[in-house]
Every structure is written in structure tokens, then in C-alpha cells.
Specification:
With 154 residues, the protein is mainly beta. The chain is globular and about 40 Å long. Strand 5 and strand 6 form a beta hairpin. Helix content is 12%, strand content 40%. Bound molecules: calcium ion (CA) (2 copies).
């Protein structure tokens, strides 16, 4: 019975996903899957001191990109990013820093902590730099619950 209910809920979610294909509330594969479609957490043009989002990864092939963009900035931006997975979900946070021309300055894949535990980084971006954060799963995971990502400017 419990299983049946779960199935009908997931069918409903699928129906909603079809009805509101572009809604970020059901964002999954197809949302923020590349550098070009990254969700902007901070931009030197439209500065914010904080950002947070709650999103789902739906499968091993899904991933979400987020951007801290200091391309047109006039000063160094120092900040932290914390990605917190649901229980039984092992998250990997890729951190890709680029210069204004898109040349990659550094890449790291942070996976310090296991299922249910956050990956976090404190760093800075000089004027002209941008940093992409790529949220991925580490193997097969619990896809029924969302992860959260939080950007905080120091
Ligand atoms: Ca995605
Ligand atoms: Ca991890």
C-alpha cells in the first residue's frame, strides 16, 4: 500500500514535470546542465550577498551548474559555497575557475564527505574571473529528495 502511494506520487510528479517543463521547482535533467545554462548565484553586474536554491538531481547523468561571475567586477569577491545533499546521497562539487576569456585557471572535484554530508569551499575570485560549481552525484543515490546549495559573500 505504501509502495503504491509512493508510485502514484511519483506519477503525479511526472505529470507536473510534463505540465511545467521549465519550472525550476521540478528542475532535473534539462536544467542548468551546462556552463552556458548555469544558474547565476552572484554577478558583478547584479551583486547579491547571498543565494540559495533547492534542486533535484534525477539520475547519474544529471548535473547542475552554478556561477559566481566576477567578469566585470572591480574588486576581489570572497565567498563560501556549501552544497548539502539529502540523506543517503553522496554529492560531488566540482569547482572550475576561469578567466574572462573562458580559459580554465583551475579545476577541482571536492568530495571530502560521504552520503548526507555537505561539500563546502571558501575562496575568492579576482576581477575578471568567474567560478563555476558543478553539482554531481557520486554513484547511484537517493534521487527522491533535493539538495541545497548556498552562496554567501563575505
Ligand atoms: Ca540538471
Ligand atoms: Ca561527497
Amino acid at each position: 500500500m505504501k509502495r503504491l502511494r509512493k508510485l502514484s506520487i511519483s506519477l503525479m510528479a511526472t505529470a507536473c514535470l510534463l505540465a511545467f517543463g521549465s519550472s525550476s521547482a521540478f528542475a532535473k535533467t534539462g536544467w542548468a546542465d551546462s556552463f552556458e545554462t548555469a544558474e547565476v548565484m552572484y554577478s558583478s553586474v547584479n551583486q547579491s550577498s547571498g543565494f540559495s536554491a533547492t534542486q533535484y538531481l534525477d539520475s547519474m547523468s544529471d548535473n547542475d551548474y552554478y556561477l559566481v561571475d566576477n567578469t566585470n567586477g572591480s574588486s576581489v569577491v570572497s565567498f563560501s559555497v556549501i552544497a548539502t545533499p539529502p540523506p543517503n546521497f553522496d554529492i560531488i562539487m566540482g569547482v572550475i575557475k576561469m578567466d574572462a576569456s573562458g580559459a580554465i585557471l583551475s579545476i577541482q572535484m571536492d568530495n571530502w564527505n560521504g552520503p548526507g554530508y555537505a561539500e563546502a569551499i571558501g575562496m575568492s575570485a579576482k576581477p575578471g574571473e568567474k567560478v563555476y560549481f558543478r553539482i554531481m552525484d557520486n554513484g547511484i543515490n537517493n534521487y527522491n529528495e533535493p539538495y541545497t546549495i548556498q552562496f554567501t559573500k563575505y
